[in-house]
Structures are given as structure tokens and as C-alpha cells.
Write a structure and sequence with these properties.
This protein is an alpha+beta fold. It has seven helices and eleven strands.
Length: 258
């Protein structure tokens, strides 16, 4: 073998070894957590206030408090979701407010009207006592970040929804719909004072949690169309309160037993 050939041979081998070492060095190493250490710090009256931080936060705290305490309307009755078994002034108000606010946006944006509203009973997180209604009231009854969404649902799925309500015996807030029950069986369902057709698509408003099948409302997953309104329920309540001088919750039954 000639000298040049030998040199070239060792040169190529050197390059190969270098590449192997380089690739090996760059290969990501798998790491695993073997130990987690933490300390328990109890927050109690013994903790000394940090006056510098408190002074910095005070203007912001006062601003938020002022906004939350702003009076928007007057409520002449105590509104409590537990007042009656199937529906009451609180559950009626809850759905009526969302239907009214949502319909304004939906009709303006899509040129269509919402037929009815259904929300979940568990979403009502507080009562509304008699007296002044403030911005804080909206945060109390709706502390979550849920937004409104309009779905197009066939009448057959609306029947499933009604059966779900009847079976679970929960006063879910309803508006724009009447479920007539006789001998523990659904006799009729009316929307806009007309018996529904199982093949007709009805537009209803709910929250994004239920639209995804939350609370086992899987029938909402059968929606034919979906229209997110990008409108938080909390803000809808604030705007509803602002538009009203006095709350006048309806006592009209939405689930009617014959």
C-alpha cells in the first residue's frame, strides 16, 4: 500500500471515529425525577405583612373593589335555586338572562333567532339576596370562565335532553321551552308555543362546558351546527343587570306536570 493511500485510509478512519463520538455526544440523555422535596408553610396571623408590597397593591385593590361594588340594578326578591324542586325564580332568571343577551348577538351576527336556552343547575354558585345587585353579584353566581355557545340540535336530541332532565330530577335552568309531563312520561315538548318536530333543527344557547358533553349531557354532542359567541356568561349577566332597573324574574313553569 502506498504511503498516500495509508494516510488517506487513516484520515478516513479518523473522520469516522470523530463523527461517531460527535453523534454519541449529541444523543439526548433520558432523565427521570428521582426525588421531590417540599416544605409546608402555614399561612396564619403570625405572618408579618409586607408593607411595601401592600402599599403597592392598595390602589389596584381599591380600584377592583370599586368596580365590583358598583350597583347595577335592584332585586326585589331573594333568588335561591333551592326554592322549589323543578324550577323557580332563580333558575328561570338565570336562563332568561342568557337567552335574552345571547339572542341579541346571535341575531345581529348570523341573522337567526335562538329558540331556547338550557344551562346546568350546578353552574349557579350563589343566591341573589334582596337588595342592590352589583358587579360582584355576577361573579358570585358565575365564578367560572364559561362562554356562551349556540348549537343547532335536531328535535330528536331535544327529546333526549328532556328525558335526561326528567330522569335526573334536577332543575336545570330553562327558557323558551316547555316540557309537558304526564304519569312520569314526556307527553309533549313545545318551543315557541309549538310542538317540536324530531327532524327540525332548533337553535339553543348553553355554555361551552355542556356543549362538550359535560354533566353527562352527551346528547349535545349530536349538534348539527355550532356558533361560539365569544361572550362569557359572567359578562352577559353584568350587561343584563346594567340594562335592567329592577329584576323581574319569571315564575312561569318550564316543566309542566299534568
Amino acid at each position: 500500500m502506498k504511503k498516500n493511500s495509508v494516510s488517506k485510509h487513516f484520515f478516513n478512519v479518523g473522520i469516522g471515529i470523530s463523527c461517531f463520538l460527535l453523534v454519541g455526544a449529541c444523543t439526548p440523555q433520558k432523565k427521570a425525577i428521582t426525588k421531590i422535596k417540599g416544605n409546608y408553610i402555614e399561612i396564619n396571623q403570625n405572618i408579618i405583612d409586607n408593607t411595601a408590597i401592600d402599599s403597592f397593591l392598595t390602589p389596584y385593590r381599591n380600584h377592583i373593589e370599586k368596580d365590583l361594588s358598583k350597583v347595577l340594578a335592584y332585586n326585589p326578591y331573594d333568588l335561591d335555586r333551592t326554592e322549589a324542586k323543578w324550577q323557580n325564580k332563580m333558575t328561570n332568571f338565570y336562563a332568561d338572562a342568557i337567552l335574552e343577551q345571547g339572542n341579541f348577538i346571535f341575531e345581529k351576527r348570523y341573522g337567526k333567532k335562538i329558540d331556547f336556552c338550557m344551562l346546568n343547575y350546578g353552574g349557579i354558585r350563589a343566591t341573589i339576596p334582596k337588595g342592590s345587585v352589583t358587579t360582584r353579584t355576577a361573579f358570585d353566581i358565575m365564578p367560572f370562565e364559561n362562554s356562551a355557545i349556540v348549537l343547532g340540535l335536531k328535535g330528536s336530541a331535544v327529546y333526549e335532553m328532556a328525558q335526561y332532565i326528567l330522569t335526573n330530577k334536577v332543575a336545570h335552568p330553562l327558557s323558551g321551552i316547555e316540557i309537558i309531563v304526564k304519569d312520569d312520561t314526556i307527553k309533549d315538548i313545545k318551543i315557541n308555543q309549538k310542538s317540536i318536530d324530531k327532524n327540525t333543527i332548533y337553535y339553543f344557547i348553553t355554555n361551552d362546558y355542556l356543549a362538550k358533553g359535560g354533566d353527562n349531557m352527551t346528547f349535545f354532542l349530536k349538534a348539527q351546527t355550532s356558533y361560539p359567541l365569544d361572550y362569557k356568561l359572567r359578562n352577559m349577566f353584568i350587561n343584563y343587570f346594567t340594562a335592567k332597573d329592577t329584576l323581574t324574574p319569571s315564575t312561569q313553569p318550564r316543566i309542566i306536570f299534568e
